Amino acid sequence: MRLTRDDERARRICSLAIGFMNAKAPVPSSDVARDFYPDLSPDSFRRAFLRDREALAACGVVIEERGSDGGESLWGVDEGCFARGAELGALEAAALEVACQPLLGDPGFSMADELRLALAKLTRAFAEAGVVASPPRHEPRSFTVLRSCLLAGHAASISYTDARGVSSERVVAPYGLFELRGVRYLVAARIGEGGAPEEGSERTYRLDRVSSAEERRGVSFEVPADFCVDDWRRLPFQMGDPTITARFEIPRGREQDLRRAAGVHGTFELGDDVLVWEVPASSEAAAASWAVAQGIRPLAPEGLVSAWEHVLEGVAGDAS
Questions:
Q1: Model pTM above 0.70
Q2: Domain 236-319 falls in which CATH fold?
């Protein structure tokens, strides 16, 4: 799903609510501006913060001024607002659990544990049924740092080792996280010398190859409006830089199945009464194995066709 300005504001308001409800002390205006409105001028920040407080108040979360310190206002949540009907009833809690269940069970949703704990704070019944049954797993520090940078819109310095075993240091702007076949990936753009993401530098990073990550609070960025993390969920033979363009013949009656499996990857063209799928691939062997599993035949390049025939021979040999 592509994020609009309204989506971004909704995410910011949600982050504000979570941040203030978890705060153990009043929060200075400068911290609010830095963490939630890093790209706004002081006047724009005050207007935006006021609008967001009004939106939260309409939802039952009141952020109020708690005096001042050093000439700047301090802010905190009015805890009494939760006692005036903001607590969910049993029926509402059950509806919320049903609505959120797909996210809690989605291995590609990187904040399942946080969502589970947030829901647990809303209703004790949900806590007893959900949190106890699914204890949170240990997360590497690099993952939590990058996730925090993604939510705050801050760049990160990472130490990364690529598939060739070459290690390097780089500064990136985290755009999205996803999980594929048990492996987590980060989609990020490189930060250039001017302190902004370089156009066209987006790529995926395997998180198990990130040995360290540090937040760069002084470097802020915005996720592009047309960015969609689903565009980066690649097929098994695409994990790496593309080395070939594979062409497959799609059997009659299989078009819809293959379109669903392909997602946004590649193009489908009808020629000479044969549907052909053309898609970039990084591994001929992986593409050949995937084609055999899907029941489709490669047309080109020659190396892919040979690899596919070799896989078929192996399958036939195992069956005999």
A1: no
A2: Alpha-Beta Plaits (3.30.70)
